Amino acid sequence: xxxxxxxxxxxxxxxxxxxxxxxxxxxxxxxxxxxxxxxxxxxxxxxxxxxxxxxxxxxxxxxxxxxxxxxxxxxxxxxxxxxxxxxxxxxxxxxxxxxxxxxxxxxxxxxxxxxxxxxxxxxxxxxxxxxxxxxxxxxxxxxxxxxxxxxxxxxxxxxxxxxxxxxxxxxxxxxxxxxxxxxxxxxxxxxxxxxxxxxxxxxxxxxxxxxxxxxxxxxxxxxxxxxxxxxxxxxxxxxxxxxxxxxxxxxxxxxxxxxxxxxxxxxxxxxxxxxxxxxxxxxxxxxxxxxxxxxxxxxxxxxxxxxxxxxxxxxxxxxxxxxxxxxxxxxxxxxxxxxxxxxxxxxxxxxxxxxxxxxxxxxxxxxxxxxxxxxxxxxxxxxxxxxxxxxxxxxxxxxxxxxxxxxxxxxxxxxxxxxxxxxxxxxxxxxxxxxxxxxxxxxxxxxxxxxxxxxxxxxxxxx
Length: 463
What we know:
Layout: H1 10-19, H2 23-38, H3 49-60, H4 64-76, H5 86-94, H6 101-111, H7 117-137, H8 145-168, H9 190-212, H10 233-249, H11 259-267, E1 269-270, H12 272-277, H13 283-287, E2 295-296, H14 298-314, H15 317-322, H16 328-338, H17 340-350, H18 361-388, H19 395-401, H20 405-411, H21 416-420, H22 430-462
Antiparallel strand pairs: 1-2
């Protein structure tokens, strides 16, 4: 309810005037509506604090000390392995904003002497505290979700203050030559050292929240069934042809490495007349006014249909709730990149010409990564359209979507059983499906133009 007596919120005042209500009456009706609609007080979470702590520790799959080592090593990597925790990659890039000695400090905190390992132990203690606080503060009913987040955060803020206090005390004993000498290349001021500790603490917290619920997440399903609907075919063929067009230029790839991309693109281009004869859905490609449209072969298109089917199989309520802390499109892409079946399918379209020199497995991996990156970029665009036009939400969906992102992450373990009951795929009737893909058609054309312009600018910058 808006606060303040003068002036009233105009929309609220209009309702009050129309129905002859005062603010107390409106407040009670709103409270009753929320109880009935969201049923927070009636939703029971069956996990005990001991169960929650056990699940969190199982999710980490290692001791607190090992978790700190693993996370520090992960932070120090300039180019991370494919990870579903996309937000963590942003933290990795921030490391370069610190003095270069920051990377040396990470190595010390992993395998340094006893005084250096005190910093490591301070971080490990934080992990232990997060496990403890989570098990104690997560609620037994969904009605206390917001309150539990507040209490969890309050306790962690206090602990972070203790951590920073202990961290700064270690500045004088850090065993890096020149770190306290302003004229030395390894210099890091005490203030910057304090900030560095806060940065590592936040990195650790993010990775902890992600790993703690990872064991509860359903895995990405790699389906062999073609799930592309009749209304989606022209959009998928357009995107397939666009990825091929993009590959034929490979403007985001270093010039010396573009040869394999150009070669694969040339192998899977066809003329408009050939595409028509093959019965391919080329109408959307023709709608994009270009001097030289690209039409992909049927085999390449079928691979992209396989990719789209994997997205369709996994873009459901259960998966989106499970991965509410990050980008579900990215999660699915990572699973495809790592999947042996997907790799074999792509290798077959790479090496389908007996007269051409076969691509090596390493080249196939690079080409597949490029195609899947391009497709995921485009897929995210029309997934938003698909979501915006989906039907009414259930009460559990509403409850989850009304939480903040942090609450969704930290309560995912505790609410896993309740959320599991809400599994249902996003679906629509035939007319709605047709309209969704019509909207998607407009989106992909606009998005492809934007990405092409960005690629051209990137290529100009390289020159």
